[in-house]
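Module 6 notes. Inverse folding takes a fixed backbone as the condition and produces residue identities as the prediction. Think of it as a translation problem where the source language is geometry and the target language is the twenty amino acids. Below is one complete input and output pair. Work through it position by position during the lab.
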């Protein structure tokens, strides 16, 4: 979970299922980066995908990740927001909205 985009993906997928295109749009990063991070999460069996109308739709496979996201949301601090800002990732666990400003 050490990569900020991976953490954002888990946070987003904890809320609802998404396809790669949706995740790319929400996070405002390249599709290849999202796909790479999803592949890591799939390999670790933290997320899975189902095919819906020819598209892979991802969801959280490990229920403990939802609890982790809730814990991070409660514990999020300005230092986390600053780290996120330096990483250039559009995700805010503190507000549960990936586009909220910190």
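Target side of the pair, the amino acids:
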């Amino acid at each position: 979970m050490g990569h900020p985009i991976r953490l954002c993906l888990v946070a987003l997928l904890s809320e609802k299922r998404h396809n790669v295109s949706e995740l790319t749009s929400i996070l405002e990063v390249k599709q290849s980066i999202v796909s790479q991070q999803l592949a890591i999460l799939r390999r670790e069996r933290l997320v899975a995908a189902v095919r819906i109308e020819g598209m892979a739709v991802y969801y959280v496979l490990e229920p403990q990740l939802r609890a982790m996201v809730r814990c991070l949301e409660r514990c999020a601090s300005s230092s986390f927001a600053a780290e996120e800002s330096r990483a250039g990732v559009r995700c805010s666990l503190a507000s549960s909205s990936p586009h909220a400003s910190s």
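Reference fact for the lab report: The first strand starts at residue 18 and ends at 19.
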